[in-house]
Specification:
25% of the residues lie in helices and 31% in strands. The chain has 245 residues and is of the alpha+beta class. The radius of gyration is 18 Å and the shape is globular.
Amino acid sequence: MKQIWIVSGLVVAALGTSALIVGGRALFGDEPAAATATQELPWQVTTLPGGGIQVLGLSVSPTGGAPVAGSSTLGDVLQRWGDKVQIAIVAAPNETGNLEAYVDPMQAGFISGKAIITAHLPPEVIQGMRERAAKTEYMGGTTRKATLSSADLAEALKAPVTAVSFIPAANLDEEIILTRFGQPAERVRSNGHLEHFLYPDKGLDLALDSEGKELLQYVAPAEFERLRQPLLNAAASASAPASAP
């Protein structure tokens, strides 16, 4: 399965589940005085030496290569959120899959929501873990979730975090986004109800959905083009004139 620029099966599942939806302004509009000190709010993104970012209380490393010094691992995720965490390999047909942690609920400062956290392991390691999985099940459609064996889980907990998808409980709108996150470098509309606010310096693609839930996807800034380019390709295809019969 391709990395975070293709929304994972766990993200799709999270978007499809019921949740308490609060007004965006109630959570995003009025920031408690002490909140800025947490450095865990969705709009608080810090660039780290080595090309990673600090966001939502996690250090996100570039995919591959040596992890950034102090980068978070799935072990850190499990230690912090405990029984709210599910770790598995999620794979579409004919793809190796991604090692992911689903956190529900997840508290980011005073913002609540759900998160899908992707960690990096070499494809051959992920394939071996899938073959040794304690259980494999369908998540809906043809996407499969492989629950790791206890031995493989211990190894997976060492894997560095390389992407984070956050689904806030609060609904957002354009005004909230621009106030909290600032002006994006680019805006790309996927369809009539979905628009992406792109912040390459933060490694953030914020998808505003007027008919559904918002999705914030974070990667290392150096990898942002792999998140952005599929959006541009899709937008170009949608606007291209139909060919004559």
